[in-house]
Amino acid sequence: MKKKLLLLVLSFALCLPMFAESICVNLKNGETVRFSIESVENVTICEDLPIFLNSVVDESQTPLKFKLLSDSTLEVIKDDSYQELDSVVAIPAKVRIDGKVYDVVGIGRRAFYSCYNITKVTIPSSICYIDDEAFYECPFLDVLVDNSNGIIYLGVIAFHFTNNVTYTHPEYVVDEKLKFGILTDSTVDVGLRESADYAFRPLGKSIEIPSTVKIKGKIYTVVKIANGAFEYGSELESFDFPPTITSIGSGAFKYCSKLKEINLPSTITQIEEETFMGCKNLKYIEIPESVTYIEDRAFAYDDSLDIVINNSKENIKIKKSAIRNCCDYRCKSVTYLKESSIVIDTTAVYDYSTLFSYRLLPDSTLEIIGDKGKYHSDFLTIEFAEIPEKVIIEDSYYENVYYVYPVTSISDFTFSDCEKLKSVKIPSTLTNIGKDAFYNCHNLTSIEIPSSVTHIGDSAFSNCENLDVIIDNSEGNIDLGKDALSDCKSVKYLK
């Protein structure tokens, strides 16, 4: 019977050119492929030929295990049974589970970790990411990746110690050294691939970053240099930013010891901590006026670096440890294009007195505190006190940044027992004079209280027997505490 069947097939094959000019082959994935008879030399059935599965595969038909990501997507996950898989594995693009079809979009962390028996894996175009160590230590593995829909994101050492990785569409691999991470529905960050097939390749003297990439058929804009993107890039000497970059992540160029030249685009808005730390051969860098933040140790240990900071808009905040005040790891020089201090209110004035202390109130205003000279021994010797309208206070973290606060209050007991005090000037910003604020100021002779003051506390001017007080009560809203003015020489109300 078998001999008769074989003869029948051979006879049909010999006669086939007489009846047709081409032959159609129906594939398992549902596709039909047409071949010209004249071009077919022979037909070989390859049991181990990797194919992409674009048709729906029932869960029962595949040894793979899946995790539900959404109502329509799955991820291939790790399972101990993979250790016993045959040499060839085809990742399906779609899987039917309980009658519902799901797209397979990812390969999870360590999914095929140490699967020594697997020699070939095909990955369909539906896969958009391969997570950390997915094929780690598969030394005999050849991977064929259908990336016709764009760039596939590779996790850390995703193919570490694998034999070979091939992309069906190399034109969609923007740069074999780079990886992209999706930030929003239209933006990505960029860094160096950490998977095995790239980890030991030299970075080179320079590297080019694209402005856009295509992922799953969609165009994304590259807006950020990722955290730690090129750190320890020992061969990197120069770097050109695409015009789309708006931020540089922390440690992005950390210890790129041969980096000599870098030009920051005007689109950059912030430089995060340790970004250029340890770039000891970096000689010059200009910070564009678009930059508003430079974080801790951004240029630490860059002792050959001359920095020019364009602060013409006076909107930049620089952590003190970013460029200097860093003990032994400050920059060579720092130059500001505009030397004026960066303040919120440039009409404010400094309080040069060392005698006043201030407390920041919840409403972002200041209160003068004296505490009977407890903290300033010479506070008791002053003869004239001018309360400032506003005080500029240096930011404790940022270089060349100052905040302006209005003075609205004199705390309880601030000037009490200041027996040498003769006169006080009260600003129009003041709203409160605390209790016993000027108690026992026997030599205080005159004071004018503006209409802004709405409260004078108990015994505020008690025992000020030589004091002439003028109170502007034109607003009619002043509140006097008990015995606030009882011992004064005279009290005059403007209203």
Description:
The structure is a single chain. With 495 residues, the chain is mainly beta. It folds into four domains: 2-39, no CATH class; 48-173, Ribonuclease Inhibitor (Leucine-rich repeat, LRR (right-handed beta-alpha superhelix)), CATH 3.80.10; 202-340, Alpha-Beta Horseshoe (Leucine-rich repeat, LRR (right-handed beta-alpha superhelix)), CATH 3.80.10; 357-493, Leucine-rich repeat, LRR (right-handed beta-alpha superhelix) (Alpha-Beta Horseshoe).
Q: Tell me the CATH topology of the largest domain.
A: Leucine-rich repeat, LRR (right-handed beta-alpha superhelix)
Helix content: under 10%
Q: In total, how many domains does the architecture comprise?
A: 4
Structure summary, number of beta strands: 40
Structural class: mainly beta
> Could you tell me how far the N terminus lies from the C terminus, measured between alpha carbons in angstroms?
127 Å
Hey, roughly how much beta strand do the residues contain? 25-35%
Task: Give the overall form.
Answer: elongated
Main β-sheet description: 9 strands, mixed
The whole-angstrom Rg is 38 Å
Tell me the name of the CATH homologous superfamily of the largest domain.
Ribonuclease Inhibitor
Which CATH architecture of the largest domain would you pick?
A: Alpha-Beta Horseshoe
H/I helix tally: 3
| Assigned CATH class of the largest domain | Alpha Beta
Low-confidence stretches: 1-20, 47-52, 195-201, 341-350, 372-376
Mean pLDDT: 79
